[in-house]
Write a structure and sequence with these properties.
The chain is built from five helices and four strands; from the N terminus they run H-H-H-E-H-E-E-H-E. It has 153 residues and is an alpha+beta fold. The protein has a four-stranded antiparallel β-sheet. One of its GO terms (biological process) is response to amino acid.
Amino acid sequence: MLDSFEKLILKVLQRDGRASTQALSDAVGLSPSPCWRRVKRLEEEGYITRYAAILDGKKLGLNAFAHVQVSLIDHQTSSLGIFLDFIEKNDQVLECTSITGDFDYILKVAARDPEALEQFIMHNLLRLGIVRSTTTVFILRQMKVSSALPIDM
């Protein structure tokens, strides 16, 4: 179980992964040395898996984002391997989630524009030969984007 200091550390680091040990210790009310030890323990125990920079997609020329629902032809080990290998190696796929319902997976995909997204679907995804069908839902505007998890649930 996490104590209140560790929960605060996680909250602060989710907002600012580059917070110095001093800034982090000030924010949570611990001296720097015990604060640093707790961060190291949280990393070692897998609570903190990595640190990342959050980039602005529009500044990078990415103006089309979509959720692509994917239904596979079958669920054989070889088909799943091909699909998961494709997902892992393709930088345009931001997220891949196994879902319930009429589709097997939902992908969050980034592209320069709608035509580039079509290119991704038609010439990359469907050419795998294991996809039965897709449905694409364009993201018009994102009102909230967060990777921060709720700590106190």
